[in-house]
Design goal:
This protein is an all-alpha fold. It folds into 2 domains: about 30-130, Cytochrome Bc1 Complex, Chain D, domain 2 (Orthogonal Bundle); about 145-225, Cytochrome Bc1 Complex, Chain D, domain 2 (Orthogonal Bundle), CATH 1.10.760. It is built from 11 helices and no strands. It starts with a helix and ends with a helix. About 35% of the residues are buried. The chain binds heme C (2 copies). One heme C binds near residues 92, 106 and 124. One heme C binds near residues 186, 189 and 202.
Length: about 230
């Protein structure tokens, strides 16, 4: 009886809020913008250990190449190249997919990802999400993070960004982790979104960033990176 009451209560929650995110972790199937083939691979990798090991083995040669820009194990030390270590798997899957079909544009990443099979994309997303995100104090250059600016971005972040990227900036399967990312990289992406640039035509982010000033963008970037 108690179980029945719990089930009823939790499905009511889903109905009331309109989605299952209210229950905490979104389901693995909740990655909006990828092909169904990729979604299947992603779900299988999450369930089947043997299959996961096989796919990780398949991408192990490719990862060496990624390290040359994104840093060893994805902890990039260059301010303009995003850190991938510990980034959310669903987000990585979606972005690699977008590069592979030119829905996100970058002169290096598009030609690279266009040559990928679905198993490469799913395997690379799995691999980098499993790498340890080294604490920022160990990789950020001394003057890369401005703590005064970071402080001034806190309130705005919690008001406008936390609902999707999380209070602690860690995101979830669906939304990017921003915590510990390079501030300059975050800033550059916010500027692209605000300008409605073709490089990243994301509707939620274009709307969110539309009225942000340069100073607010700088403050938000420093705050998110400092988390
Ligand atoms: C020659 C340098 C270079 C190499 C090699 C490279 N990348 Fe990138 N990558 C970049 C840059 C620069 C960006 C930022 C693109 C932008 O500004 O939109 C990026 C962005 C990304 C992103 C988006 C991250 C985010 O936070 O949205 C992913 C995912 C990614 N790369 C994965 C890979 C993988 C996997 C490999 C190896 C197969 C790889 N990259 C190899 C330079 C590189
Ligand atoms: C309604 C949900 C939502 C809100 C609110 C939101 N974001 Fe996002 N954000 C997204 C989505 C979706 C993406 C992925 C866009 C894409 O695929 O290009 C994203 C991507 C980003 C990225 C790129 C991350 C990377 O690794 O390249 C940054 C930076 C970012 N958001 C910052 C912010 C900031 C700062 C705010 C608050 C001012 C904010 N977001 C509010 C949904 C949201």
């Amino acid at each position: 009886m108690r179980i029945l009451a719990y089930l009823l209560a939790s499905s009511l929650l889903v109905v009331l809020t309109g989605n299952s995110f209210a229950q905490g972790k979104p389901p693995r199937s909740a990655i909006p913008e990828v092909s169904s083939e990729l979604l299947q691979l992603y779900n299988r990798i999450g369930k089947d250990r043997k299959y996961e090991a096989k796919i990780l083995d398949q991408v192990s040669l490719r990862t060496e190449f990624c390290f040359s820009c994104h840093g060893k194990t994805g902890n990039s030390e260059r301010f303009y190249i995003p850190r991938l270590a510990g980034q959310n798997e669903g987000y990585l899957l979606e972005q690699l997919y977008k590069f592979s079909v030119s829905k996100r544009y970058h002169y290096v990443m598009v030609p690279l990802a266009s040559s990928f099979e679905g198993t490469d994309i799913a395997g690379l997303a799995r691999f980098f999400s499993k790498q340890k995100n080294i604490p920022r104090a160990q990789y950020l250059k001394k003057d890369e993070l401005n703590l005064t600016l970071a402080k001034s971005g806190k309130e705005l972040f919690q008001e406008k960004c936390a609902q999707c990227h999380g209070k602690g900036g860690k995101g979830n399967q669906r939304y990017a982790r921003l915590a510990g990312q390079h501030p300059s990289y975050i800033e550059s992406q916010l500027l692209v979104f605000r300008s409605r640039g073709k490089a990243r035509p994301s509707t939620p982010m274009q709307n969110v960033s539309r009225n942000l000033t340069d100073h607010q963008i700088l403050a938000l970037a420093n705050y998110a990176a400092s988390l």
